Amino acid sequence: MVSRSSVARPRVVRLAGLGVGGAMLLALLSGCSVDGIGSAFGGFGWPQGGISLQAHKMYDLWIASTIAALIVGVFVWGLIFWCVIRYRKRGDKLPVQTRFNMPMEVLYTVTPVLIVAVLFYYTAIVQTDVDKLSAKPDMTVEVVAFKWNWQFNYRDAPGAEAKTVASTLGSSDVIPLLVLPTGKKIRFEETSKDVIHSFWVPEMLFKRDVFPGNVRNTFEVTLDKEGRYVGRCAELCGTYHAFMQFELVVVSPEKFDQFLAAKEAGSSTQDAMGVIGYTGDDRFAITTQPFDTRRHGQSWNQNNDPVAAGK
Question: Where are the transmembrane segments (predicted)?
Fold first, then answer.
Protein backbone atom coordinates (compact mmCIF):
# COMPACT_ATOMS: atom_id res chain seq x y z
CA MET A 1 0.00 0.00 0.00
CA VAL A 2 1.34 3.44 -0.96
CA SER A 3 1.04 6.18 1.64
CA ARG A 4 -0.04 9.71 0.82
CA SER A 5 3.28 11.05 2.03
CA SER A 6 5.18 8.94 -0.48
CA VAL A 7 2.97 10.23 -3.29
CA ALA A 8 3.25 13.87 -2.20
CA ARG A 9 7.03 13.71 -1.80
CA PRO A 10 7.80 13.74 -5.61
CA ARG A 11 5.46 16.68 -6.06
CA VAL A 12 7.30 18.62 -3.36
CA VAL A 13 10.61 17.75 -4.99
CA ARG A 14 9.37 18.90 -8.42
CA LEU A 15 7.98 22.15 -7.04
CA ALA A 16 11.21 22.77 -5.14
CA GLY A 17 13.16 22.15 -8.33
CA LEU A 18 10.94 24.57 -10.21
CA GLY A 19 11.45 27.21 -7.52
CA VAL A 20 15.23 26.73 -7.56
CA GLY A 21 15.26 26.97 -11.36
CA GLY A 22 13.23 30.18 -11.26
CA ALA A 23 15.49 31.67 -8.62
CA MET A 24 18.56 30.80 -10.72
CA LEU A 25 16.96 32.42 -13.78
CA LEU A 26 16.17 35.62 -11.87
CA ALA A 27 19.70 35.70 -10.43
CA LEU A 28 21.13 35.29 -13.92
CA LEU A 29 18.97 38.10 -15.31
CA SER A 30 19.78 40.40 -12.39
CA GLY A 31 23.47 39.98 -13.11
CA CYS A 32 23.02 41.33 -16.63
CA SER A 33 22.15 44.85 -17.67
CA VAL A 34 18.93 45.47 -19.55
CA ASP A 35 20.92 47.02 -22.40
CA GLY A 36 23.25 44.01 -22.52
CA ILE A 37 20.38 41.53 -22.73
CA GLY A 38 18.61 43.63 -25.35
CA SER A 39 21.75 43.88 -27.49
CA ALA A 40 22.33 40.13 -27.23
CA PHE A 41 18.88 39.43 -28.65
CA GLY A 42 18.72 42.21 -31.23
CA GLY A 43 16.55 44.48 -29.12
CA PHE A 44 13.65 42.00 -29.24
CA GLY A 45 12.33 43.85 -32.28
CA TRP A 46 12.85 47.36 -30.90
CA PRO A 47 15.15 49.62 -32.99
CA GLN A 48 18.61 49.97 -31.45
CA GLY A 49 20.96 52.93 -31.60
CA GLY A 50 18.82 55.64 -30.01
CA ILE A 51 20.49 59.04 -29.91
CA SER A 52 18.67 60.73 -27.01
CA LEU A 53 18.24 60.14 -23.29
CA GLN A 54 14.51 59.72 -23.85
CA ALA A 55 15.12 57.06 -26.52
CA HIS A 56 17.28 55.05 -24.11
CA LYS A 57 14.55 55.06 -21.46
CA MET A 58 11.94 53.83 -23.93
CA TYR A 59 14.33 51.14 -25.11
CA ASP A 60 15.00 49.97 -21.54
CA LEU A 61 11.24 49.82 -20.83
CA TRP A 62 10.68 47.67 -23.91
CA ILE A 63 13.49 45.26 -23.06
CA ALA A 64 12.41 44.92 -19.41
CA SER A 65 8.78 44.32 -20.46
CA THR A 66 9.84 41.69 -22.98
CA ILE A 67 12.01 39.88 -20.40
CA ALA A 68 9.10 39.88 -17.93
CA ALA A 69 6.79 38.50 -20.64
CA LEU A 70 9.29 35.77 -21.48
CA ILE A 71 9.62 34.74 -17.81
CA VAL A 72 5.84 34.49 -17.48
CA GLY A 73 5.64 32.66 -20.80
CA VAL A 74 8.28 30.09 -19.84
CA PHE A 75 6.52 29.49 -16.52
CA VAL A 76 3.12 29.02 -18.18
CA TRP A 77 4.52 26.81 -20.94
CA GLY A 78 6.27 24.70 -18.30
CA LEU A 79 3.01 24.22 -16.40
CA ILE A 80 1.15 23.30 -19.60
CA PHE A 81 3.70 20.67 -20.64
CA TRP A 82 3.93 19.34 -17.09
CA CYS A 83 0.15 18.91 -16.97
CA VAL A 84 0.13 17.28 -20.42
CA ILE A 85 2.72 14.72 -19.28
CA ARG A 86 1.63 14.28 -15.68
CA TYR A 87 -2.08 13.91 -16.38
CA ARG A 88 -1.97 12.16 -19.74
CA LYS A 89 -4.54 9.44 -20.36
CA ARG A 90 -3.58 6.12 -18.78
CA GLY A 91 -6.79 4.19 -19.29
CA ASP A 92 -10.55 4.46 -19.65
CA LYS A 93 -11.15 5.46 -16.06
CA LEU A 94 -12.39 9.03 -15.72
CA PRO A 95 -10.01 11.16 -13.60
CA VAL A 96 -11.23 12.78 -10.42
CA GLN A 97 -13.20 15.90 -11.34
CA THR A 98 -12.44 19.04 -9.33
CA ARG A 99 -15.09 21.73 -9.56
CA PHE A 100 -12.83 24.53 -8.33
CA ASN A 101 -9.55 25.19 -6.59
CA MET A 102 -9.70 28.41 -4.62
CA PRO A 103 -5.92 28.95 -4.20
CA MET A 104 -5.38 28.39 -7.93
CA GLU A 105 -8.23 30.73 -8.92
CA VAL A 106 -6.86 33.43 -6.64
CA LEU A 107 -3.40 32.89 -8.14
CA TYR A 108 -4.42 33.26 -11.78
CA THR A 109 -6.63 36.25 -10.96
CA VAL A 110 -4.27 38.22 -8.75
CA THR A 111 -1.06 37.50 -10.67
CA PRO A 112 -2.16 39.06 -14.02
CA VAL A 113 -3.51 42.10 -12.16
CA LEU A 114 -0.16 42.56 -10.43
CA ILE A 115 1.75 42.16 -13.71
CA VAL A 116 -0.44 44.73 -15.49
CA ALA A 117 -0.14 47.13 -12.54
CA VAL A 118 3.66 46.93 -12.56
CA LEU A 119 3.86 47.40 -16.34
CA PHE A 120 1.43 50.33 -16.15
CA TYR A 121 3.47 51.93 -13.35
CA TYR A 122 6.77 51.86 -15.25
CA THR A 123 5.11 52.82 -18.54
CA ALA A 124 3.53 55.87 -16.89
CA ILE A 125 6.91 56.87 -15.41
CA VAL A 126 8.74 56.63 -18.75
CA GLN A 127 5.93 58.32 -20.69
CA THR A 128 5.79 61.17 -18.19
CA ASP A 129 9.56 61.61 -18.42
CA VAL A 130 9.52 61.57 -22.24
CA ASP A 131 6.73 64.17 -22.36
CA LYS A 132 8.15 66.33 -19.54
CA LEU A 133 8.92 69.97 -20.34
CA SER A 134 11.57 71.80 -18.34
CA ALA A 135 10.96 75.30 -17.02
CA LYS A 136 14.00 76.69 -18.82
CA PRO A 137 15.23 74.62 -21.78
CA ASP A 138 18.76 75.26 -23.02
CA MET A 139 17.51 76.12 -26.50
CA THR A 140 14.29 76.27 -28.53
CA VAL A 141 13.72 75.23 -32.13
CA GLU A 142 10.55 76.12 -33.98
CA VAL A 143 9.64 73.47 -36.55
CA VAL A 144 7.53 74.87 -39.39
CA ALA A 145 6.13 72.25 -41.76
CA PHE A 146 4.56 73.03 -45.11
CA LYS A 147 3.78 71.23 -48.34
CA TRP A 148 6.31 69.76 -48.88
CA ASN A 149 9.33 70.86 -46.91
CA TRP A 150 10.60 72.20 -43.58
CA GLN A 151 11.78 75.41 -41.99
CA PHE A 152 13.74 75.35 -38.72
CA ASN A 153 13.88 78.54 -36.66
CA TYR A 154 16.36 78.91 -33.80
CA ARG A 155 14.51 80.97 -31.17
CA ASP A 156 15.75 83.04 -28.25
CA ALA A 157 13.12 81.64 -25.85
CA PRO A 158 10.14 79.26 -25.71
CA GLY A 159 6.69 80.42 -26.78
CA ALA A 160 5.04 81.91 -29.83
CA GLU A 161 6.15 85.43 -28.86
CA ALA A 162 9.86 84.59 -28.92
CA LYS A 163 12.15 85.96 -31.63
CA THR A 164 13.90 83.97 -34.34
CA VAL A 165 17.68 84.53 -34.30
CA ALA A 166 18.53 82.21 -37.21
CA SER A 167 16.65 80.06 -39.69
CA THR A 168 17.09 77.21 -42.17
CA LEU A 169 14.63 76.81 -45.04
CA GLY A 170 14.41 73.74 -47.23
CA SER A 171 13.72 73.76 -50.95
CA SER A 172 13.07 71.21 -53.68
CA ASP A 173 16.78 71.43 -54.58
CA VAL A 174 18.41 71.50 -51.12
CA ILE A 175 17.56 69.27 -48.16
CA PRO A 176 17.27 71.44 -45.01
CA LEU A 177 19.80 70.75 -42.24
CA LEU A 178 18.77 70.90 -38.59
CA VAL A 179 22.01 71.34 -36.64
CA LEU A 180 21.76 70.66 -32.89
CA PRO A 181 24.19 70.12 -29.97
CA THR A 182 24.63 67.18 -27.64
CA GLY A 183 24.01 67.41 -23.91
CA LYS A 184 21.45 70.24 -24.09
CA LYS A 185 17.73 70.27 -23.30
CA ILE A 186 16.24 71.14 -26.67
CA ARG A 187 12.61 72.17 -26.91
CA PHE A 188 10.80 71.68 -30.21
CA GLU A 189 7.74 73.81 -30.95
CA GLU A 190 5.91 72.58 -34.03
CA THR A 191 3.45 74.31 -36.29
CA SER A 192 2.14 73.72 -39.81
CA LYS A 193 1.29 76.17 -42.57
CA ASP A 194 -1.32 73.96 -44.21
CA VAL A 195 -2.18 70.35 -43.28
CA ILE A 196 -1.12 67.86 -40.61
CA HIS A 197 2.49 66.69 -40.94
CA SER A 198 4.65 64.62 -38.59
CA PHE A 199 8.20 65.34 -37.39
CA TRP A 200 10.18 62.09 -37.25
CA VAL A 201 13.84 61.15 -36.86
CA PRO A 202 13.94 57.32 -36.66
CA GLU A 203 17.02 57.27 -34.40
CA MET A 204 15.21 59.40 -31.83
CA LEU A 205 12.62 56.57 -31.54
CA PHE A 206 10.02 59.32 -31.34
CA LYS A 207 7.73 61.28 -33.61
CA ARG A 208 5.16 63.97 -33.02
CA ASP A 209 2.42 65.30 -35.31
CA VAL A 210 2.60 68.88 -36.55
CA PHE A 211 -0.78 70.64 -36.61
CA PRO A 212 -1.93 73.75 -38.50
CA GLY A 213 -3.52 76.75 -36.84
CA ASN A 214 -2.70 78.00 -33.37
CA VAL A 215 -1.81 74.53 -32.04
CA ARG A 216 1.89 74.28 -31.17
CA ASN A 217 2.86 70.70 -30.41
CA THR A 218 5.80 70.79 -28.00
CA PHE A 219 8.33 68.26 -26.75
CA GLU A 220 11.94 68.12 -25.52
CA VAL A 221 14.91 65.85 -26.11
CA THR A 222 18.51 65.69 -24.92
CA LEU A 223 20.76 64.29 -27.64
CA ASP A 224 23.78 62.27 -26.57
CA LYS A 225 25.34 61.01 -29.81
CA GLU A 226 26.93 63.02 -32.59
CA GLY A 227 26.21 62.10 -36.18
CA ARG A 228 23.98 62.76 -39.16
CA TYR A 229 20.49 61.26 -39.36
CA VAL A 230 17.69 61.41 -41.91
CA GLY A 231 14.43 63.03 -40.84
CA ARG A 232 11.06 62.51 -42.49
CA CYS A 233 7.43 63.47 -42.48
CA ALA A 234 5.54 60.49 -41.06
CA GLU A 235 2.02 61.70 -41.88
CA LEU A 236 0.57 61.33 -45.37
CA CYS A 237 0.18 64.97 -46.37
CA GLY A 238 -0.24 65.08 -50.12
CA THR A 239 1.36 64.51 -53.50
CA TYR A 240 5.02 65.02 -52.49
CA HIS A 241 4.80 63.54 -48.99
CA ALA A 242 7.58 61.06 -49.79
CA PHE A 243 9.93 63.92 -50.69
CA MET A 244 9.41 65.84 -47.45
CA GLN A 245 12.73 65.09 -45.77
CA PHE A 246 15.42 66.83 -43.74
CA GLU A 247 18.72 65.92 -42.07
CA LEU A 248 19.53 66.14 -38.39
CA VAL A 249 23.18 67.02 -37.76
CA VAL A 250 24.24 66.49 -34.13
CA VAL A 251 27.51 68.16 -33.16
CA SER A 252 29.36 69.15 -30.01
CA PRO A 253 28.13 72.23 -28.10
CA GLU A 254 31.27 74.14 -29.13
CA LYS A 255 30.71 73.49 -32.83
CA PHE A 256 27.03 74.35 -32.51
CA ASP A 257 27.87 77.72 -30.95
CA GLN A 258 30.15 78.44 -33.92
CA PHE A 259 27.47 77.34 -36.37
CA LEU A 260 24.77 79.49 -34.77
CA ALA A 261 27.10 82.50 -34.58
CA ALA A 262 27.79 82.18 -38.30
CA LYS A 263 24.08 81.95 -39.05
CA GLU A 264 23.34 84.99 -36.92
CA ALA A 265 26.04 86.86 -38.84
CA GLY A 266 24.16 86.21 -42.07
CA SER A 267 25.87 83.07 -43.41
CA SER A 268 23.88 80.46 -45.28
CA THR A 269 23.45 77.07 -43.69
CA GLN A 270 26.04 75.56 -46.02
CA ASP A 271 28.59 78.33 -45.26
CA ALA A 272 27.95 77.90 -41.54
CA MET A 273 28.59 74.16 -41.95
CA GLY A 274 31.91 75.08 -43.50
CA VAL A 275 32.78 77.18 -40.46
CA ILE A 276 32.52 74.10 -38.19
CA GLY A 277 34.69 71.93 -40.40
CA TYR A 278 32.44 70.44 -43.06
CA THR A 279 33.77 70.85 -46.58
CA GLY A 280 32.60 70.13 -50.11
CA ASP A 281 29.47 68.02 -50.41
CA ASP A 282 29.52 67.41 -46.64
CA ARG A 283 28.08 70.91 -46.26
CA PHE A 284 24.86 69.47 -47.71
CA ALA A 285 22.72 66.54 -46.62
CA ILE A 286 24.44 63.14 -46.90
CA THR A 287 21.73 60.84 -45.48
CA THR A 288 19.22 61.66 -48.21
CA GLN A 289 18.92 63.73 -51.35
CA PRO A 290 16.23 65.73 -53.15
CA PHE A 291 13.83 63.78 -55.33
CA ASP A 292 12.74 64.75 -58.81
CA THR A 293 9.51 66.58 -58.06
CA ARG A 294 9.00 67.41 -61.75
CA ARG A 295 8.91 71.11 -60.91
CA HIS A 296 11.83 71.76 -63.26
CA GLY A 297 14.11 72.96 -60.46
CA GLN A 298 11.68 75.53 -59.12
CA SER A 299 11.75 75.96 -55.32
CA TRP A 300 8.88 76.85 -53.02
CA ASN A 301 8.60 78.47 -49.64
CA GLN A 302 6.11 77.74 -46.87
CA ASN A 303 3.46 79.89 -48.60
CA ASN A 304 3.84 77.82 -51.79
CA ASP A 305 5.40 80.80 -53.58
CA PRO A 306 8.44 80.26 -55.83
CA VAL A 307 11.75 81.37 -54.28
CA ALA A 308 15.43 81.03 -55.03
CA ALA A 309 16.84 77.58 -54.25
CA GLY A 310 19.58 76.81 -51.75
CA LYS A 311 18.78 79.33 -49.01
Answer: 12-41, 61-85, 106-124
The answer to whether 290 and 173 are in contact (CB under 8 A) is yes
Residue type present at position 157: A
Per DSSP (E only), the strands in 121-251 are 139-146, 149-155, 164-169, 177-181, 185-192, 197-201, 206-210, 217-222, 227-233, 245-251
- The alpha carbon of residue 135 and the mean position of all alpha carbons in its chain are separated, in whole angstroms, by 23
Task: Check residue 203 and give its pLDDT.
Answer: 93
Q: What is the pLDDT of residues 20-57, one digit of tens each?
A: 444 444 444 444 555 556 566 666 777 777 899 999 99
Decide: 143 and 189 in contact? Cβ < 8 Å. Answer: yes
158 and 303 housed in the same domain: yes
> pLDDT digit string (tens) for 148-188?
999 999 999 999 899 999 999 998 889 999 999 999 999 99
161 and 290, same domain (yes or no): yes
Do the beta carbons of residue 152 and residue 269 sit within 8 Å? no
**Pairwise CA distance, residues 75 & 88, whole Å:** 20
Terminal C-alpha separation, the chain: 95
- Mean pLDDT value of segment 245-254: 97
82 and 48 housed in the same domain: yes
Q: Which residues of 98-107 are buried (b: 16+ CB within 10 A; e: fewer)?
A: eeeeeeeeee
Chain centre distance of CA 114: 26
Domain count, the chain: 2
CA 145 to chain centre: 21
90-101 pLDDT, tens digit per residue, is 888 887 777 788
Which residue range forms the structural domain that includes residue 115?
8-87+100-131
Q: What is the DSSP letter of 202?
A: G
The size of the chain, in residues, is: 311
Counts for the chain of helices (H) and strands (E), in that order: 6, 12
Neighbouring C-alpha atoms within 13 Å toward the C-beta of 215: 13
Q: In the 8-state DSSP scheme, what is residue 75?
A: H
